[in-house]
Write a structure and sequence with these properties.
492 residues, binds heme C, two-stranded antiparallel ribbon
């Protein structure tokens, strides 16, 4: 009998005779149990920190109308202008065109009933006026590298990829390398850069869509919208609001305007100056640096409006909310502006509007499209989010292979190209990603968290295991392989 046969006979024997005292053979953990886990590494028995609990009792119905969504009634103008005769195209203005009111109305809704200091002890409250308002995306506690941690439910962001690629440096997608206003000395003192961990919440309108897309079975469901196969709950309904709190481990000494920002404990990667970030985690402190919002507004050409706030300790006020300053709003990627078109045909920006009152934050995205202080400067909110697609048939999405390269490709934002034209395009659900290259990928209606969820489910469904954590700095070898794949595509 070969060893193999011997082993299988033994296994059969064990299965067939569960004698007393024998350990049961572990069963495959169910999709539901993994999907709705709180964290990759559970909280210890006697935690000394707050403990995150996934908010996933999604509503089964929603009101016909969002009464509190006051911004939906603000008369902002989403229309695109084209040059006609002597009439020039004008970029939108922060004041006098209601954009300032629009973002403030969203902020008033988002901060309702939240802790004035957004303190570590209280964190983000899911209940507003006695009712659950805020819900999380499932399946984000499977990936050991970037998956949810147990204190505040944050996940590790992949931010700085493209800048890294363009500069040809050794910087990775999980590590945020610099931040607007960062002192030069910090760039050399912290050679591995800084990590960003963040947590997102959908309101009940968004939560309803999440629950229909990923029901209690934990298995993503498909439905149909306008004759096209899309995730069952999509597109997100009018009334959807998403908020995301971003933290960074950058020391306040490196970015003085962060002084006074809430300090959150986060169970994140251990760090040494010699090796950078490690797979092992430990509870360490972070500062809240940015608050992102996104709302569904059917008047927008993409169906969405994205906005961001940055913490500024220099502004007057006593609460956290007094210190977050709007950076701007964006409702499209300006497909008539370079690099989506050649420079000679480029129109002024029309789908980003920047708060010109704030001198502190000069950090914008590609050609002044909107991006936040910790975001990729070669991208922009809606461009990166417009690339939220999932791979078909329950398989994992691999960016640049079967789903679009959200974090960039060589030459992003550098010159007019088909890839830039596709990346800085506007599409709305159920449209495919432009260009035809990712024709089988289906829309996530701009939700990159849902893309993470579908991809993690894809690993569960195909490999029965998540990708192992090898290097949270993501420099070798996955990073090298990704770079090589991108190079190959560019030179084709
Ligand atoms: C280069 C890519 C990139 C850019 C630029 C970017 N994001 Fe995101 N964003 C992500 C990824 C990836 C996630 C999901 C992963 C996570 O939350 O951990 C995400 C999640 C979010 C979420 C939670 C809901 C969702 O769609 O997944 C919001 C809201 C959001 N971002 C807003 C913004 C805003 C506002 C901006 C611009 C100021 C912005 N983002 C710029 C990559 C990007």
């Amino acid at each position: 009998m070969s060893i193999r046969n011997l082993l299988s006979t033994l296994v059969i024997a064990i299965v067939a005779t569960p004698a007393s005292g024998q350990l049961p053979i572990p069963k495959q953990e169910s999709a539901a149990s993994i999907a709705f886990r709180n964290a990759v590494v559970p909280a210890p028995q006697k935690p000394t920190t707050p403990v995150f609990k996934l908010s996933h009792t999604y509503p089964h119905s929603i009101p016909a109308k969002c009464e509190e969504c006051e911004w939906l009634n603000i008369p902002v103008n989403f229309a695109t202008q084209f040059p006609a005769g002597s009439k020039k195209v004008e970029s939108p203005q922060w004041h006098g065109q209601h954009w300032d009111e629009y973002i403030n109305a969203i902020l008033n809704y988002v901060k309702e009933d939240q802790d004035p200091q957004l303190s570590n002890e209280i964190g983000w409250k899911t209940t507003v006026k006695g009712k659950t308002r805020w819900f999380n995306v499932p399946w984000m506690a499977y990936d050991p590298t970037a998956g949810r941690e147990y204190v505040h439910g944050t996940t590790n962001e992949r931010t700085a990829t493209l800048g890294d690629l363009v500069q040809g440096s050794q910087q990775g997608p999980h590590v945020q390398f610099f931040m607007v206003g960062e002192k030069e000395s910090c760039k050399t003192d912290y050679p591995w850069g800084f990590e960003s961990w963040s947590v997102g919440y959908y309101n009940e309108f968004g939560g309803y869509a999440l629950g229909r897309t990923i029901p209690t079975s934990g298995v993503p469901q498909m439905g149909e919208y306008l004759g096209t196969s899309v995730p069952a709950g999509l597109p997100f309904p009018t009334g959807t609001v998403v908020v995301k709190i971003l933290t960074s481990n950058i020391p306040v000494d490196c970015v003085p305007f962060l002084r006074g920002s809430p300090e959150w404990m986060v169970d994140r990667h251990k760090y040494t100056k010699a090796n950078g970030y490690e797979c092992d985690r430990e509870v360490q402190s972070d500062h809240v640096v940015q608050v992102d919002v996104a709302v569904v507004d059917r008047r927008s050409p993409t169906g969405w409006v994205y906005g961001t706030f940055a913490y500024d300790g220099n502004t007057p006020g006593t609460t956290f909310w007094d210190h977050i300053v709007p950076v701007g709003l964006q409702w499209g990627s300006d497909p008539w502006t370079f690099p989506a078109v050649p420079l000679s045909a480029s129109l002024p920006l029309q789908q980003s509007v920047i708060n010109t009152d704030s001198a502190t934050f000069q950090h914008l995205g590609c050609k002044d499209r909107l991006a936040g202080p910790v975001d990729n400067q070669q991208s922009s909110c809606t461009s990166c989010h417009a690339s939220a697609y999932a791979a078909p048939k329950g398989t994992p999405g691999i960016m640049g292979s079967n789903v679009p390269p959200s974090f960039g490709f060589n030459g992003m934002c550098q010159a007019y190209s088909l890839e830039n034209a596709a990346y800085f395009q506007n599409q709305s659900a159920p449209q495919r990603f432009p260009g035809g290259q990712y024709g089988d990928a289906f829309t996530m209606d701009t939700s990159l968290q849902l893309e993470v969820a579908f991809t993690q489910y894809g690993y569960y469904n195909t490999d029965r295991a998540p990708q192992t954590c090898t290097d949270p700095n993501q420099i070798t070898p996955p990073r090298k392989a990704a770079e090589a794949a991108i190079q190959k595509k560019v030179s084709k």
